[in-house]
Amino acid sequence: MNLVLFGPPGAGKGTQARILTEKRGWPQLSTGDMLRAAVKAGSTLGKKVEALLTKGELVPDEIVIDIIAERYDRPDCAKGAVFDGFPRTIPQAEALDAMLAARAKKIDLVLELKVDDAVLLQRVEQRIKEGGILRSDDTPETLAHRLDVYYSNTAPLLDYYGRQGKIVTVDGMAPIADVTRAIAAALDAKR
Ligand code: ADP
To answer: What is the pLDDT of residue 185?
Structure first.
């Protein structure tokens, strides 16, 4: 099964993706993690995207489309994958559909984690209180910008996938275990 975890920054996509990988074996394909790894490694790609990540701007579509295609073609994705933080724009969603179609695959389900902006802000503040600033873009100021970017570029995908009838919405403000259960129920209903 190929899933998209969808939702605003800090909605809990990464947390749920890791649980899905552990329980169902589908690898987590997080463009954010891949880009941060490139920055950390100091690669050409990393140098190119570092400033964009820090500012909370999107990296160009071609870059993320390429890294996703390369990652998806590894054998561990043969039974499916969990797309986390990708797609983030309509062109990315179209490229993903085309890439999967070329491999006789498709997106089976889009899980939307719904979380209010105020709660997202509280979560960032809590993370900083507990651990300091661990990610250059994880500050209240940059979160506000990431949310703007989310509403202008990414939220339109709800329409895109809605028209394909693929969205299941889950309350992302519930405790983690409840979110996990709601996702499991959506998956079981689908199989
Ligand atoms: P979050 O979901 O918490 O905002 P991510 O780890 O998914 O964080 O992404 C962090 C940053 O990486 C984004 O703000 C953006 O700069 C870049 N990025 C990640 N995925 C994409 C994508 N699909 N398209 C463009 N930029 C991306």
So the answer is: 97
